[in-house]
TrEMBL record:
Domain called NAD-dependent epimerase/dehydratase: residue spans: 5-187
Pfam families in alphabetical order: Epimerase (PF01370)
Originating species: Rubellimicrobium rubrum
Species lineage: Bacteria, Pseudomonadati, Pseudomonadota, Alphaproteobacteria, Rhodobacterales
Entry-linked InterPro entries: Epimerase_deHydtase, NAD(P)-bd_dom_sf
Protein name: NAD(P)-dependent oxidoreductase
Membrane-spanning parts: none
Length: 292
């Protein structure tokens, strides 16, 4: 597929693009920074400017495409965003994330692109950036869990999901929103492993979960290859927790009294990707426990 990928130079995007290229997709990186990946054109686009978004999505991405025209984009993957709290003013985080997502969805649907994937976030569940401690309503957290965050970043993601659902209702296209957990790159495991094993409390705000950047790329590919689901929201995480403490001990220490929807394995994640496995054949294969 020919893929218009926003935010491809970011932490999650660069691994996802590399995986998509390996799978045979032709990808264009839309970002304010260059990815510099072989065979992937880089286009500098301000996504808060709807004119730029529409023009970039409707135009050739490189001179090579002039010699061998390949037609319109088959899919849009929208990862670009201010990626966290504490990077700029709260209202700027909200403005950029909400407006850019609207512009991307608006352009893609008007151009008739039939597959759109939007990056949402674990933060929508209101745990990560809460003022003080907020615990989940139940565990493992799945897509039915309430999304009532306190912070502007997560608010923007909840708003983006509502926007995506509205565009899908208008058009009937496939639009999938990914509630991505804390993205970890392979080289970071050596940095984090000792802390994760010895001090599980540092992972409380991430619901003791994570997603390997390579498996996130696999998830995007599965979304591209699965049609006909309409509007869907999917949690994205690895199968195991991000702590060395067994899940039963984590429950006793941090989640005592929280309803348990189903039994958990010894080190099973508290952030369920069961829906993605069932509907997309998502199968994460990497993990921090692979370290010696």
């Amino acid at each position: 597929m020919r893929v218009f990928f926003t935010g491809g130079a970011g932490k999650a995007g660069r691994h996802a693009i590399a995986h998509l290229v390996e799978q045979g997709h032709q990808v264009t990186n839309i970002d304010l920074a260059k990815l510099n990946h072989p065979g992937v054109p880089d286009l500098r686009v301000d996504l808060t400017d709807g004119h730029q978004v529409f023009n970039a999505m409707a135009s050739p991405a490189s001179g090579a495409e002039l010699d061998a025209p390949i037609g319109p984009y088959d899919a849009v993957v929208h990862f670009a965003a201010i990626p966290s709290m504490f990077l700029t003013a709260d209202n700027e985080t909200y403005r950029v994330n909400v407006l850019s997502t609207y512009n991307v969805l608006d352009a893609a649907t008007k151009l008739g692109i039939r597959k759109i994937i939007v990056a949402s976030s674990e933060t929508t569940y209101g745990v990560c950036f809460a003022d003080g401690e907020v615990r989940p309503d139940y565990i493992p957290v799945d897509e039915e869990h309430p999304t009532v965050p306190q912070d502007s970043y997560a608010m923007s993601k909840v708003c983006n999901e509502a926007t995506a659902r509205s565009f899908q209702a208008r058009t009937g296209l496939d639009i999938y929103a990914l509630r991505i957990n804390n993205v970890i790159e392979p080289h970071e495991y050596l940095q984090y492993a000792k802390t994760w094993r010895e001090t599980p409390e540092v992972r409380r705000r991430n619901i003791f979960a994570y997603i390997d950047a390579r498996d996130l790329g696999h998830m995007v590919d599965r979304c591209l290859r699965t049609d006909g689901l309409g509007y869907q929201v999917f949690n994205v995480s690895n199968d195991d927790s991000s702590v060395g403490t067994p899940s039963a001990e984590v429950i006793e220490r941090f989640y005592k009294g929280i309803p348990l929807k189903r039994p958990l394995g010894e080190f099973e994640t508290f952030y369920s990707s069961d829906k993605a496995k069932r509907l997309l054949n998502y199968a994460p294969s990497h993990g921090w426990r692979d370290l010696p």
